[in-house]
Structures are given as structure tokens and as C-alpha cells.
Amino acid sequence: MGKENIWLLVIWISLAKKCTGFSTTTEDTVLSNTTEWITDLSDIQSKFSLRTAEIPDDDLCYIVPGQKNTISECQFNLEAKTFVVIHGWTVTGMYESWVPKLVSALYEREPSANVVVVDWLERASQHYPTSAAYTKLAGRDVAKFVQWLQRELHYPWEKLHLLGYSLGAHVAGIAGLLTNNKINRITGLDPAGPGFEYADEQSTLSPGDALFVDVLHTNTRGSPDRSIGIQRPVGHVDIYPNGGTFQPGCNLQNTMMMIATSGFQNMDQIVKCSHERSIHLFIDSLVNKQQESMAFRCGSKEAFNKGLCLSCRKNRCNKVGYGTNKVRSVRSSKMYMRTREIMPYKVFHYQVKVHVFSQDQLSFTEQPILVSLFGTEGEKEDIPFTMPFLNSNSTISFLLTTDVDIGELLMVKMKWDKDSYFSLSDWWGNNKFRIRKLRIKAGETQAKVIFSSREGEFAYLVRGGGDAVFVKSKEEESSQKAERRHKLKMNGSLFKGNAEGTSPPK
Ligand SMILES: *[C@@H]1O[C@H](CO)[C@@H](O)[C@H](O)[C@H]1NC(C)=O
Ligand SMILES: *[C@@H]1O[C@H](CO)[C@@H](O)[C@H](O)[C@H]1NC(C)=O
Ligand SMILES: *[C@@H]1O[C@H](CO)[C@@H](O)[C@H](O)[C@H]1NC(C)=O
């Protein structure tokens, strides 16, 4: 069975290219703008299961559009918000193991809510291109369902939040497109790429499908038409954790370890580790409210990796997952963040900026550097970093992350490690740079701190040598004010009320 899954995944990827044209050939009547069809409930094939916090893993009560009695039978709470969870393509024709996990996490965060799981398993377990084309019919079913809730029960649109994974993200998008009023929020969890990367907005999740559309992209490796997750931004806020291509902890080594410890029964999860990480990042944001991750808007992955994008001005940063602030930013803006390998995924982001001097002309590439951070709350020693370039009289900027909350930074140590080319001349300390100051910007607090050498005017970064030690310099008082201002802003207007998910975006 494990082998079969891998095989099917390969098929999925290889079919991607062939099916790029399907969306334009599907009947246009599906998207006709007459509203009569939406009240015709006779052809709905999807099922809507209202799950409970007590039994999150089984379909015990279906809400049937057109049968009002099912509302009370299933104990649908008309006063509370409703989450509609939509699964993606499935090899086995069964729900994947993440479904009850997400249901439980939603109830943990919002105990009075209704969590409805859409069952379109029949259509979702065909050959990938067929299932991909069926997103239109499944989306139509979901549109009819929510439209009926609204028409029959006056259930408010602003209480609706659709969450779709993979193909399910496009199902949610199509549902949002077809309803007469705008759904409050759609969360796309690594929306499927094959067949959708070049499709029009009517066939994919897009910003017009809800008042607020937020998207996590976690498995976008490869050329655009072969990537499992869609590469282009399709929402108001599009977050690319770890660059969006591939997630930490999902490499072959970890995969082998998981197989060794748990056998092949969780093969679907192992194969789709990065794809499914989008769901677990969202679950993390629901259950670990105190450790909310932050993402930052950036022009490119490369600029982000240089630490150049840790600004929160003008909505450039945002919380990740459930608490995402509803900003309807400019089109195609991508946001980036780093994460840990396991839950809780949060890390703290720092930009380190340093000017290195030397008398002699020195030039290195790919140098191993170790940085240690010491602060009021904790410390993290020997964070490894590969410096792409190390040249005389140049300014270097790089991104450093820790999984430890260090608090206010007090001291920084930096060490130039030996690499395999370390030679005799290095013993004489010929390869060394002088550093006067170190500037660090913390993404999470927006604090900017300037450090100066602990001993003398300069600290020395010596190849294979000891630590260059820096302490907080007196110049940075003005930046503490900036940090206080930022904290006030985080408490106040910027993020106020948004975690409730009810306030309309501006
Ligand atoms: C439906 O769309 C057509 C064009 O596609 C337009 O002419 C017509 O007015 C629309 N009808 C409604 C009810 O919006
Ligand atoms: C670097 O700059 C210093 C002066 O700031 C100068 O003395 C030194 O020669 C420069 N080094 C190189 C390699 O250009
Ligand atoms: C932010 O709000 C919390 C509780 O709502 C409060 O304890 C804290 O002092 C506030 N911080 C600032 C900087 O106003």
C-alpha cells in the first residue's frame, strides 16, 4: 500500500502537465450567473457532516440542505461561527488522518463553533485530473449548502469560514465565487498546483472569493506545472513558510526514521509531509495561541534570507494562521517566515548586519559562522550559519533564527569556524577581519540594537579562532522607544479584534 501511494503521487505529478487545459474545457454553465440553480438542491452529491468536539473523527450527523430538521438534529448552533473543512484529493477514498486533528483544534480554540466537514470523497478519489475538474461541482455543492443556511436560517455570512486543503482550497474558492454574498473568510492550505497554476481566477482560489483570503504555501518545489502546491499568490495574504518549497523535518532522513519507527501505515503523511505541513501550521496557530508565528512581506526569498524584510511598517508583517490580521494588501505580495521542524513551529527572526574590515584583500565564500545570542530571557549558543560571501571592507547582512525566546538582547558572540580548506596559514591568524559594530534587528519585537566590541575598539573574526564578543552599546536608546511604540501598536489598532474573525477588513 505504501508503494502504491508513492506510485500514485508520481502519477499525480506526471499528469500535472497533461491536465493544465481541463479548466477551460469544463462546461461554462457551472459558472453561469443566474441564481436559480443555487436553490435547486436536488443534485447535491457532497455531504456535510457536523462533527463534535467529543467525536471529532466520525460522521455521526449530516446536515442535509433542504431538510431543516437536520439543523436541530445535529445541534447546529445558529449563534456561533461555522468552519467548513474541505479535504483534497485522496488515494484511498477515505479521510486522511489530519481531518480529526484539525476538527479538534478548531473546537479547542472556538468551543461553541460548528465544525462541518465536507465529504466529497467519491469525486476526490478519481484520477487526479478528473478529481481536479470535479472541484467545480464540489464547489457548487458547498455554495448551495451555505446559500441554503443563509436563506432558510438567516445564518450570517460573516460567521462563515471555509478551510480547504490542496484541491479543497479550490473547492472553497469556487464556492465563494458562486454565492450571492461574500463569505467572510477562506483559508487555503497549500492549494493544489497541477492544473491550477495557469488556470483563470474562476477555476482557482482567488482574492475575490471571500472578504478575506489567506493562504499557506508549503510544497511548491519544482517547475510551476509540476509543483504539488500552487506557486503563485492566490489570496490577500500569501505566506511561504521556509520559502514555501519544502519544509524542515520532511527530508529523506526524517522520512526513513518515521518509516523505521511507525512502519508504512502513515505513508500518505510521509510522502506529503511538506504539503500537509500547511494544515499543521494552521493547527499550531489554533492551539498554541501564546506562540504565534510571524511572517514578513518580502520581494524575494533571497532578500528575506538576507534578513532585509523584517519590517512591520505599513502591514508588512502579520501573524500566521488563525490570528492573521485581515489586511487586503497589494496584489501578489508574498510573505515569508521560518519555522521549527516540529510543533510549536514558531521561531524568532533576527537580521544581523556587520561591516568587516581588513588590511589585506581577503575574499571567501561559503564560510561556516557560529553566532550565540544572550538576552534577558534566555540564550542560544552556536547557531550555525553559512556566510555566502566574506570580503574585505564589505557590509554583510543575514537572517538568523532561534527557537528560544531570548528576550531583550544583551550580548552577541560570533565565531568563524574551520572548514575543510583550513590551512597552516590560518594558524598564524592571517585570515582575520576587524569588526567595530554589529547591528541586530528583531522581527518579532521590531527592536534595533547596536552592539560594540566588548574589548577595545574592534573585535576580531579569525578563521578557526575564538569568539568575537559584542555587548549592547549606548547608542541604541532611541530604538528602545521604537520597540515600545511597536508593542503599543500590536496591542492597539493594528491587530485588535482580528483574531475573532468577525471584523470586516478595511
Ligand atoms: C449575467 O451575465 C451576462 C454576461 O455574462 C450579463 O449580460 C447579464 O446581465 C448577467 N445577469 C445577471 C442577472 O447578473
Ligand atoms: C579597508 O579600509 C581601510 C580603511 O578603512 C583601509 O586601510 C584598507 O586598506 C582597506 N582594505 C582593503 C583590502 O581595501
Ligand atoms: C497589552 O495588553 C495586555 C493585556 O491586554 C497588557 O497586559 C499589556 O500591558 C499591554 N501592553 C502594552 C505595551 O500596552
TrEMBL record:
Lineage: Eukaryota, Metazoa, Chordata, Craniata, Vertebrata
EC number(s) on file: 3.1.1.34
Family assignment from sequence similarity: Belongs to the AB hydrolase superfamily. Lipase family.
Stated name of the protein: Lipoprotein lipase
Compartments it resides in: Cell membrane; Secreted; Secreted, Extracellular space, Extracellular matrix
GO MF term (any one): lipoprotein lipase activity
Originating species: Conger conger
One GO term describing the cellular component: plasma membrane
PANTHER family: LIPASE, LIPOPROTEIN LIPASE
